[in-house]
Amino acid sequence: MGERSYGIDPAVIDSLATQIKSVVDEGHELAIVVGGGNIFRGLSASANGMDRATGDYIGMLATVMNALALQDGLERAEVESRVMSAIEMRAVAEPYIRLRAVRHLEKGRVVIFAGGTGNPYFTTDTTAALRACEIGAQAVMKATGVDGVYDKDPKKYDDAVKYDELSYIEVLQQGLGVMDATAVTLCMDNDLPILVFNMQKDGNILRAFRAEPVGTIVRGSVS
Predict the structure, then answer these.
(1) Domain count, the chain
(2) pTM strictly above 0.85
């Protein structure tokens, strides 16, 4: 969305594509889960009277639009990619099949997961955790607009303290909002680390893949 109040900012797509290309050029395998909040939020629509399941399905369709926009940016950056949707729409995306996704990654393609889980009541966070577990990812990297997890909103409080490391239990007990509880629990059950970092800072995606200190890491125990 960038600086816009709605929709897709092509400049943001180009910036993301450039950062993702630098990751692919170093030989890393990368799968991306996109949300649709810049176009439609099912939970907000539900709060205003729309049926929750209907709102969630509309939101899932919005993620497909974002996925196609990102794919276009990647292709223009000469990065081979595939969009895989949990909701079948073969004219614009491949249906999500786990082993096919793994094969795409092995061939150096960026896989963009769209359509959420294909079911209402599940968030983008949960989709990311689920897909990461399914494809055997080494970590879930949550790209946000802040440079990690804080004890309170750093945009509202000057004295907010940033965490370098947290355990899953600390996140759940303190309600820190890293990801929703279902996603965090899924990662905890599968010992899958979560890295929260600022994707708006140029080069941060590559720094994260290089395991440089960026953002906040959530894992089983804090060293």
Answers:
(1) 2
(2) yes
